[in-house]
Amino acid sequence: MKVATFNVNSVRMRLPIILEWLKKNTPDALCLQETKSPDDKFPWKEIEAAGYHVAFRGQKGYNGVAISSRQPAEKVSIGFDEDESEGPRLIRADVNGVPIVNTYVPQGFSPMSEQFQGKLEWFQRLLDYFGRNFKPTEPLVWVGDFNVAPEPIDVYDPEYLAGHVGFHPDEQAALSEIRDWGFVDVFRKHHPEPGQYTFFDYQIRNAVKNGIGWRIDHIWATKPLAELTTDSWIDMEPRLMEKPSDHTVLVAEFKE
After folding, report:
1. Which one of the listed residues 28, 52, 129, 145 is annotated catalytic?
2. What DSSP state is assigned to residue 9?
3. Active site includes 145?
């Protein structure tokens, strides 16, 4: 089973990249974040024409999540037990019998802001959600833009970025608490080396070329499923295409 995650930063703008990637890589599931599209404008027909079913929830200009899959998704739900007060940031679906939770975690703005405290509270709500609905002893995949780089090797300059939003000890602690519930960072299981990034800021000139990035997009799995991973990798090709997202695709493969 091949699962991928991609913050597209507008699903309609990035549709050519998405369709080409699906055709070339044929994942079982591609999870999208920051689709920035109301449901009546979501390009589901184009994605279905490419051979994929898609479950989605979005809004104009902000947020938005989707799970596209070769087989029809089952047990689809939106938000924390159908609570969408935080906007469309979480979608759950079973793909090939495996539960996938796809999240677009709030960015947090700045450590001194109300938005940052809201981000920490969002992580606590997510931990509660996992505890209510799943068991760490059973298969579960959590993917998405977590908006946190967990370790110093996950950012291009840990000394300079220390304490910045996305690399702050409070949000790292919140993320660690969820990991300790029973998740394994699948990418790091296979790639412990530094210099591996999924996000490259548009505002930094030649960020990709110079390796000025962050690893804030993740695929985590409960231990029983993590033991079945055969590889995980960052595909840089989408970030190098014309009119790219500022993120790129992260992939993981699991034994059937």
Report:
1. 145
2. S
3. yes
